[in-house]
Amino acid sequence: VDRDPGSIVAFLFDDFETLDLFGPVEVFGHLSKLYTIRYCSLEGGIVASVHGVRVETEKMSDVVDDPDLLIVPGGIGTRACVTDRTVLDVLRSAAERSTWVLTVCTGSGLLAATGLLDGRSATSNKIAFDWVRSQGRGVRWQPKARWVIDGKYYTSSGVSAGIDMALGFIGDILGINVAEQIAAGIEYIWNHDADNDSFAVE
Amino acid sequence: VDRDPGSIVAFLFDDFETLDLFGPVEVFGHLSKLYTIRYCSLEGGIVASVHGVRVETEKMSDVVDDPDLLIVPGGIGTRACVTDRTVLDVLRSAAERSTWVLTVCTGSGLLAATGLLDGRSATSNKIAFDWVRSQGRGVRWQPKARWVIDGKYYTSSGVSAGIDMALGFIGDILGINVAEQIAAGIEYIWNHDADNDSFAVE
């Protein structure tokens, strides 16, 4: 593919869930000729995952060009984010400017708190589903789905579902062969069916 | 379990493979009452994964107490590590002092270069298997295995196999129910059979 690399922006916050972010990063990292990945947070600087992984980030407001893709992880840190008006404003703006938005796990609860998922179908971590529902009463939450697509929004179920969704997104955009090559390259047994959710609780 | 937390040391180096490390970190992170995880490198400071994730690390020599568990990821950065005598010495010492050692992907090639796997069974990423073999002619490399256990050494196949192995290790040490609870908590479809390797090339 002969074009300038697109940009993926990962939105980090303290106590994000480690694999929510780094699963999709691993997948998109195999498309380094197509995408550069930037790691951003509200203030920039070091942001720590809930497992103590301290990651250097850029300030979100330093992202001037519109991202091709925004990735929003979940995790216990979403609980503080949804009560922080500044976080919600910055996230909403970034999501509006992005061509595509992918949330993992309770990242959809965080995105729902911006209002951007109102009237749309979405899913999330099944264990935290009640909390997620409470963040967006106008969202058509799907209790049984590995991931859900509605317009430019891809929302996945818990943690490792983000890997399946990232591969699904690549399959949709670049073709199933590209997704399958990446899955094989990381020796990952891809659950490629968005409707196949063995962790649904209802 | 009523005891002081044990310590897990993750050994980072530039251009490590992102998911090799953060898959197992996610799994062990769910045992935060049992283990603290320290992120270490030869010199300390910021270390970047091959996908540009910049992680703050401690200096390996600052780890004074013997680790319960050492995690060694793989990735293209292993190629530089195996020609660096200082890295090999530090890694060998840490591995000797650790109760258990887990390597993911080409991390076993790096560990093999220290000589510690000589005479033992081990496995690795199947795509990079020739390079891995060349790092340890005295190792009984297994071309078909999701992961291999030999004494205190657990070695896994490529990238996401590290998640399966980490769960397998926990199953061995703490019981299968603990491993299954963690897998369910991260909505991960666990390949729990170390001999089930659908990515073997021979």
Question: What does this 3D model show about the protein?
Answer:
The structure is a homodimer of 202-residue chains. In chain A, strands 3-4-2-1-5-6-10-9 form an 8-stranded mixed sheet, with helices on both faces. Chain A contains 7 helices and 10 strands. Chain A has 202 residues and is α/β, with parallel strands linked by helices. In chain A, helix 1 (18-29) packs parallel to helix 6 and helix 6 runs antiparallel to helix 7 (176-185). The longest helix of chain A is centred in the last third of the chain and has 14 residues, at 161-174. Helices cover 32% and strands 21% of the residues of chain A. Chain A has helices at residues 18-29, 78-81, 85-97, 107-112, 129-134, 161-174, 176-185, and strands at 6-11, 35-41, 45-48, 54-59, 69-72, 100-103, 121-122, 140-141, 147-150, 153-156. Chains A and B meet through helix 1, strand 2 and strand 4 of A and helix 1, strand 2 and strand 4 of B.
Regions with little confidence, pLDDT below 50 for 5+ residues of chain A = none
| Average predicted confidence as pLDDT of chain A | 95
Biggest β-sheet of chain A, characterized? 8 strands, mixed
**Strand element count of chain A:** 10
Strand content of chain A: 15-25%
Structural class of chain A: alpha/beta
Largest interface: A-B, 39 and 39 residues
Helix content of chain A: 25-40%
Span from first to last CA of chain A?
Answer: 43 Å
Written as H for each helix and E for each strand, in order along the chain, the element string of chain A is EHEEEEHHEHEHEEEHH
- The number of distinct helices of chain A, counting runs of at least 4 residues, comes to 7
Rg of chain A is: 15 Å
Shape descriptor of chain A reads: globular
Oligomer type:
homodimer
Spatially, the strands of the biggest sheet of chain A line up as: 3-4-2-1-5-6-10-9
